[in-house]
Amino acid sequence: MAKNKRRRLTTEDIVFDTINYIILTIVIIVTLYPFIHVLAVSFNDAIDTVRGGIYLFPRKFTTFNYVSILSDPEIYNATIISALRAVIGSVLNVIASIIVAYAISRRDFVLRGIVSKIFTYSMYFTSGLIPYYLLIRDLHLMNNFLVYILPGIVSAWNIMVVRSYIDGLPASLVESAKLDGASELRIIFSIIFPLSVPVLATITLFVAVGQWNSWFDTMLFCSTNPNLSTLQYELQKVLQSTQQFTQQASFDMGLRNNTNSVTPESIRAAMTIVAVVPIMLVYPFLQKYFVKGLTIGSVKG
């Protein structure tokens, strides 16, 4: 009986599966090749990289590119600052997003429509860089760690995403909790929060990556305080100093015989790997929730 129930593959099925496997293989290769290439360049001798021809494996293996980056003592403090702003910023953003999203998702909230429109308009219109800089200065957030946290606590986009997810949850759960005497905060953190883990994991990943990769705000607001420098800003300074060195140095007289040299391309490759590794370590733990969170609104029931 089992053999009879098993569907026999037709020629069309075999052709379709073969084409799918070929397409998926091509997509995997196209996706992985840039990263593998950057990894190979980061471990290849900088001067040898100038010759080109580095694809999947380093031609002259060396770790000097990483030594050049990690030898800067400010890198380690900057890494701690970047990690702190990523963790604290993500946690506070998630808490604020779910609280505000729950509030504007309630049909008995009289200002629901007005607040939703305000958040929507804020995604299309901004004041500009100069007014934003003046605001940060007037709030006395210059050279202050809070400048990394406070401006990003409330995200209109994240709030609207979480609200869309909450709208798809059964309203009877909230009504039952209210009948049992649960407060609004109890409902949020005991009912809404556990059911919203997929969407919260998605925005957590987005916020954490944004915080981790941010360096422009450091340059604007904390460049004079080395204790608040971030990893991306320090890496950016290393790249700029390397570019200046390359422009001033003579390739024939200095770089040709110097195996312990760096170039902008080699430093950039090593910087990319250093910056992306922490995110790669975190992503596998959030992947299953991330996939669910990206399908928000596709199926409701």
Automatic annotation (TrEMBL):
It comes from the Bacteria. It is a multi-pass membrane protein. The chain crosses the membrane at residues 21-43, 75-102, 114-133, 145-166, 187-209, 267-286. Keywords: Cell membrane, Membrane, Transmembrane, Transmembrane helix, Transport. The keyword Membrane applies. GO terms for biological process: transmembrane transport. Pfam families: BPD_transp_1. One of its GO terms (cellular component) is plasma membrane. The keyword Transport applies. It is found in: Cell membrane. Residues 79-286 form the ABC transmembrane type-1 domain. Belongs to the binding-protein-dependent transport system permease family. This is Binding-protein-dependent transport systems inner membrane component. The lineage of its organism: Bacteria, Bacillati, Bacillota, Clostridia, Thermoanaerobacterales.
